[in-house]
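Notebook, bench 3.
Goal today: get a predicted structure for Site-specific recombinase XerD from Actinoplanes derwentensis so we can plan the truncation constructs. The sequence was checked against the plasmid map this morning, with no discrepancies at the termini. Length recorded as 308 residues. Pasting the sequence as submitted so the record is complete.
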Amino acid sequence: MSLQPHQSWSPATPETAHQFTEAWLANRRLSEHTRTAYRRDVRTWLTWCADRGLEPLRATFLDVNTYARQLETRLAPATVARKLSGVSSWYDFLVKLQAVTTNPVGGADRPYVDRDHSATLGLTPEEVDALLAAAATAGKRTHAMLTLLADLGLRVSELVGLDLIDMSYERGHRTVRFTGKGGKARRRALTPATAQVLDEWLTERGLAAGPLFRTSTGGRVDRYAVFRLIRRLATQAGIAEAGRLSPHSLRHAFATTARAEGVPLEDVQDAMGHADPRTTRRYDRDRHNLDRDPTYTIAAARARRNSA
């Protein structure tokens, strides 16, 4: 069935709700990981409505508030906010279809999320080195995956989505192309050291087309395998709280180290694919370091003037 504005859908059946969801996702430029997460978030909301005999097309902000408060009993505020964001986008689509007149999430009381803080556990440069050393003993594929995460600050979805065809050359640089958040096509340079680690894996992997990082059966390595791998290697390397680490920990370390080494904020932002520089600053765990307080720079400049 083709969905068109002005069509009557009240009450919505599970089949119609599924059609809404698939049409909504088809109209968005999203990575497969984001698409899967949004589909899951809407399904969770629809199941919650069904369990209470609530027609989702007649839900109000009060219903969304009740749903959110229940989620908050077991999930972090940032996770609840993300789930509500997906449901809100779904309702925005239904408003455009004129299936509903208003978005009930719009008037809901969403949880406060500190945009200046990330709950992701970060890593020091020394811990990153230890993790890479452990990866080097675990096989060429493992070493290559963790090196790309550490040296490029990739999202895990970007890493596992890479194909052999994404490896290229541009203006004297070895490069890797990938689809970033929001479906944006992006490319990054590979340093000689990073390229060497990757080439060692490519030699072992062979030249067959397909996923860059394959399983023993030829399938694509999934993001959950990378999570488990990082925690196992972190335990092996003796890193504290290894069980709380994630691929995103390496992404945080990338941002923090780049800023500590003097890379301009806008360059780090571009490298990480952030639309908002505030997001990049949130990743920088060293941003409140008093050694970087501008007062020292101002005082040094004044001292130079006074001594001239």
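The CA atoms of residues 95 and 101 lie 6 Å apart. The mean pLDDT is 85.
Flagging this for group meeting.
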